[in-house]
Amino acid sequence: MSKIYKFDNFLRTNNISQIEKVNSEGQIVYKGNYSVGNTNLLALLFIDEEVVIDQICTRIITLDIPSKRNEVLKVINEINFKYKTIKIYLDSEDNVDLTIDYLSNKQNFSAELLFEVLIHMTKIVETNYSKFMKIMWA
């Protein structure tokens, strides 16, 4: 049974309709919105049948004020140090993104565990979002 089939079945069985499945250039992507404070964020879940690494990612903020770069990088480093299973980074377009890799193959893939990892990611963002906002609003 494919990883995608297992995840689709998990979503259907648990009546989870907030996550949308799309085919983007031959890659299956699951998209779901979640709220942090008054901000709506998008989580993306990439499931690949051919590789053992699936990935969950979300954009936390876009750094609109270049003078805040060093403060944002300091917060990113603190969060990365605290949470060893995630990676937060500032990309070349000044977006602060978070990714989590999920290792699996067709045999040991657990849709339930992958969903728990997704929830874990949203909780990390919820816990740390205000740190970025304090910098941006200061």
Fold and architecture overview:
The protein has 138 residues and is an alpha+beta fold. 38% of the residues lie in helices and 34% in strands. The chain has helices spanning 3-13, 69-82, 111-137, and strands spanning 19-24, 27-36, 39-46, 53-62, 87-90, 95-103. It has a 6-stranded antiparallel sheet with strand order 1-2-3-4-6-5. The protein is elongated and about 50 Å long. The mean pLDDT is 92.
Map the helices and strands.
Layout lengths: L2 H11 L5 E6 L2 E10 L2 E8 L6 E10 L6 H14 L4 E4 L4 E9 L7 H27 L1
Antiparallel strand pairs: 1-2, 2-3, 3-4, 4-6, 5-6
Helix pairs in contact: 2-3
Concise summary:
With 138 residues, the chain is an alpha+beta fold.
What share of the residues lie within helices? 25-40%
One letter per element, helices H and strands E, the order comes to: HEEEEHEEH
What does the largest sheet look like? 6 strands, antiparallel
Strand content: 25-35%
Terminus-to-terminus distance = 51 Å
* Rg over CA atoms: 16 Å
The average pLDDT is 92
Number of helices: 3
What is the general shape?
elongated
Structural category is: alpha+beta
How many strands appear in the DSSP assignment?
Answer: 6
Q: Can you tell me the residue ranges where pLDDT is under 50 for at least 5 consecutive residues?
A: none
Main sheet: strand order: 1-2-3-4-6-5
